[in-house]
Amino acid sequence: MNADVVRSRQRPAAPVRLFGERISFRIRWRPLVVGLLLLVLCLAALVLAASVGDYRVPLGDAARAIVGEGSPMAELFVTRRRLPRALTALAVGAALGVAGAIFQTLTRNPLGSPDIIGFGQGAAAGAVTVLLVLGGGTAEATVGAFLGGLTTAAVVYLLALRGGAQGYLLVLVGIGVSAMLVAYNNFLVSRAELSDAKLATMWVVGSLYERRWPEAALMGAALAVLLPAALALQRTLSMLEVGDELAGGLGVRVSRVRLAALGVAVALTAVATACAGPVAFVALVAPQVARRLTRSTGPGMLPAAAMGGLLLLVGDVVAQRLTAPVELPVGVVTGAIGGVYLAWLLLREWRSGRG
């Protein structure tokens, strides 16, 4: 595939001119409309998440409580309990969506997401080790999850580096490392006391249970730093999709860009996993669905972020109410959704290969 082919696949953007000809830029309307629609759906899901629960708050009261104008009872349930959890879900989903978009672009593979490659399981291994081996608490487990994700990313990258750290090598090495980490996590959980195993399982599966303002603030700060960095790399990453040789010929420093993008994606994954555990398949599904909706080439990070936030927030609402009053970990719900999507994706690839 060459640059001319890539350009021919992109829909022309509509020119917009302001003040005569002095200011001119182009807008791709479909991604813009899809992005705004996803943003509206995220806001609606946020109000819904603040409303539903054992004590139901009417949607209007929930919306007023979010902006600080609700009744004392509504503010008790919404502001102190449900809103920080919902905001954490949105931020974690957005981080995973952007990380998935970066990984899928780097590997040029729809299966190239952090959970498939094993970074999520690495973060879970760090948290479980702190809880069950070192005897730490939840705060220490959060630090362990962050360090575990970074360590796993470094191991996968170094193992794949001998082959040039190409996309398919990252996926293959990551799948192997992920399998070993799953076995390690299961081994530790199986040997733990029941109470400790129950807490550790939440880190292995992924959960937003009892997430409060500290987690929401951490995710907000992480996105404030890492999302602009990801957006700054978006245009250069799009050029990598034509292949390393052609991108290098166009002036892209391929190794430096790949390493920088990998660092941003790993940091996003590590922080998200430190706050919610290895939530399955959001990083895989969100970028793919967003790209199909926008019909655009390139990473499409903002639509992927909005789609990731929407998927995780809706999944968390379902996890809370599906078996109420018993709450499911959100990773169970996203895993079920992602498993169906993955089966469809593999079937589609198999059919296209036969054709």
From TrEMBL:
It comes from the Bacteria. The keyword Cell membrane applies. Pfam families: FecCD (PF01032). The chain crosses the membrane at residues 86-104, 116-135, 141-160, 167-187, 259-281, 301-319, 326-347. It is found in: Cell membrane. It is a multi-pass membrane protein. Keywords: Cell membrane, Membrane, Transmembrane, Transmembrane helix, Transport. Its main location: membrane. Belongs to the binding-protein-dependent transport system permease family. FecCD subfamily. This is Iron chelate uptake ABC transporter family permease subunit. It comes from Pilimelia columellifera subsp. columellifera.
